[in-house]
Amino acid sequence: MFQGPKIRKCFITTCKRCRREIPAGVKEFPFQSVVVECPLCGEVRRYLPSELMLGKPHPLVGKRPPTPARATGD
Length: 74
Ligand SMILES: [Zn+2]
Description:
The protein is mostly beta strands. The chain has strands at 10-14, 21-23, 34-37, 44-47, 52-55. It is built from no helices and five strands. It is globular, with a radius of gyration of 13 Å. The termini are far apart.
């Protein structure tokens, strides 16, 4: 059996707004563009398969709760 590293890689993309690596939320490589919401800045964008890569998300991802849909004063 294949024994992978403890840190599992996943498909990520680079947020077009904050330029951090964010999880694409897909388990398998998509053949169509996917809509990804950045957990760090809340940017919702459509990413092409060519913009996805296998890697680790930014360390901040998962530490902070998702950005509220509408923050007061934003
Ligand atoms: Zn972002």
